[in-house]
Specification:
alpha+beta; binds protoporphyrin IX containing FE; five-stranded mixed beta sheet
Length: 402
Amino acid sequence: MTQPSLMEMKINNTPEDFAHLLQDMGNIFWWPAGNFWVITAYDVAKDILTNPNFSCDRTPFFVSRMPNLNLELIQDFFAVVSKMMVMSDYPEFTNRRRICYDGFSNQSLDKLVPLIKTTIQNQLARCKKVNQIEFVADFAKMIPSITLAEFFSIPGNEREDFYCWSNNMTQFFGGASSYTNEDGVEVNNSASKLKNYFRGLIEQRKNLPQNDFLSILIQHKDAFGLNEEEIISQAIMMLVAGQVTTTDQMCNNLYTLMCHQEVKAKLWQEPGYIDNALDELNRLDPAVTFIFRVAKEDAKVGLETIKAGDVVFISTHAVNRDPKQFDHPDECILTRTNNKQISYGYGGHYCLGAKLAKQEMRLCFLELIQNFPKLSIDINIAPVRKHHSLAFSGFERLALSF
Ligand code: HEM
């Protein structure tokens, strides 16, 4: 019998079982079918994510995965992606990240809170009226999509397009097992549409600056020594990184919580545990399931030698359940302290939107706790997981009863 692929293993197992299957293969092991290394131990993951010898420029990996794809078809995609902070190393990386960090202050996040609350309230009212909740569409997609649209001042009638384009780019990023010319045409179209949209928006903001993220990028562009193409790439990065990930993580967290009735009961009694709860739920079922890097030079990691050009896939499932780092790693413990899970990455590329994502989830879960004492999974409609790619997993459907 042939060994299942990592994707098949992820699809056919619970997060807990998937983590253990990988851990059983070692702290670090070569996965021939994927032609990459897999990391399952916390310390090794940390070393790699803080080691400048491991590059974020994953272009060679993508290209090696595309033997059947005419690369000419995805030139716009590569042009946008290659300048994103998440694909950059020092020195270009520093200013590409810092300019966004500046535009993403606590103050600009606080400004989004009323909108997030209103979105949740509107959705709650709608769900109560129709007497049902389909969590994916009603909350998990809606909240980040409206929040990000506001962040970039995207008009309501264009938001669906934005959702599709960013979703499409995320899937492509995630290390699909095969890339066809059709996939290439689609993702290139998404990248090019996003690029043209932001180019138009930049012209508008130059003439009439507003109090939004893009205006801040334009204002600080010269001080950080960035050109317009780089600004556009960072804007697209924020949009792409912040949409599907938040949708997925929100669903994964809610599902895990609903599967732990005693934890749920305690949280409903003591909502003050919400931040701990979200950290713990993120740990148990991460939406970004692999973080990957490429070795620039030969490197010794544990007992293995990773050769220059080798790709390393860090399993967040396995690392987040490393027994050396977490006591009772498979239990959902509301009082867990020092929860250093890597669901938002680690080191210099730690997720820039983690605060926003956590705020969106926090406000949503608190409202659910307050409004629905009997919230549970709808036993008549089975939840359906959605595995976009090797690196991203969430839910397709998550019906709740209340
Ligand atoms: C729950 C939702 C989210 C999850 C699970 C998540 C996860 C991650 C992870 C694992 C990384 C590290 C990638 C790497 O090291 O290769 C990352 C980076 C990043 N995330 Fe998030 N993210 C989420 C939400 C957001 C949001 C809402 C935004 C922005 C609006 C955002 C923006 C970014 C950016 C810009 C980076 C790149 C940082 C860098 O390269 O320095 N993320 N995210």
